[in-house]
Amino acid sequence: MTNEKILKMLNLGETDELKKLLQNEIYIKELNRKNGADKRYKAMINYFNLSVLNKPVCQFPYRKDIKGITYSCFMDGYSAVLSKEDLGNMELYDEKKYNAPYADIEKIFEPNSEIIFENFNMSKVFVAAKSLGYKLNKSSLSGNKALIFELEGIYFNIGLLDKAFRIIDNGEKVNILREKRTYSPIIVENDIGKCLVLPIRPDANSLKEHTIIHFNDLI
Questions:
Q1: 3-state secondary structure 54-93
Q2: Of 115, 157, 178, 200, which has the fewest beta carbons less than 10 angstroms from its beta carbon?
Q3: pTM for the full model?
Q4: Measured at the alpha carbon of residue 151, what is the angle toward residues 146 and 152, in degrees to the nearest 5?
């Protein structure tokens, strides 16, 4: 943050917002010492900036103990993420404030899912997408011409997969899981955590409007 911006915020009396921004900058500088942790933290923030649902549970993260591990939890109605990394200065979902418990995220991650591919390099998906002009933004998350990732005949929005995976992306290879049923979500997991994306169901006509990246072309 520049000195000019700090001075401007002080002059406008925006001291609380300035404090949050400075705390966030300090936290990110500390994360720079870890492999990619600063990028993953920024991805946590961006996850909700790109959320299209206004429900509080889709606007704030949550911390939850699952099978003896404390996870940072994210969901937006179309994807979900469990990360073992800390949330820094992010504001948490407040069950008392919104008078509603956080979602039962353990069940969202389909306990009967099985590993279908091991040691896959997820960057192949996004490199292929970027070669076609893809960029992560709100328009890439929906629309008739959004890029699609095809896996075992099931289709997933690449923007949603990218947004969720960035939170756990450590540059290492991943395992891909799915339940053995039609239209089950895709789950990607590594040492940091796991992310899940719901499938989309385009009909034959709408598929013609999409550019499709096929998993089998990447292995």
A1: CCHHHCCCEEEEECCEEEEEEECCCEEEEECCCCCCCCCC
A2: 115
A3: 0.83
A4: 135
How open is the CA angle 147-189-175, to the nearest 5 degrees? 85
Q: Which residues contact 65 (CB under 8 A, 6 or more apart)?
A: 71
Q: Using one digit for the tens of pLDDT, what is the confidence trace for 4-56?
A: 777 676 787 877 786 777 666 665 555 555 568 899 999 999 999 999 899 99
> Using CA atoms, how far apart are residues 81 and 47, in angstroms rounded to an integer?
10
Cα separation values, 69 from 73, 91, 178, 197, Å:
12, 20, 22, 22
List the one residue out of 52, 49, 29, 54 whose CA is nearest residue 90.
49
Sheet with 79-83, edge to edge strand ranges: 62-66, 69-75, 79-83, 193-197, 186-189, 174-178, 114-120
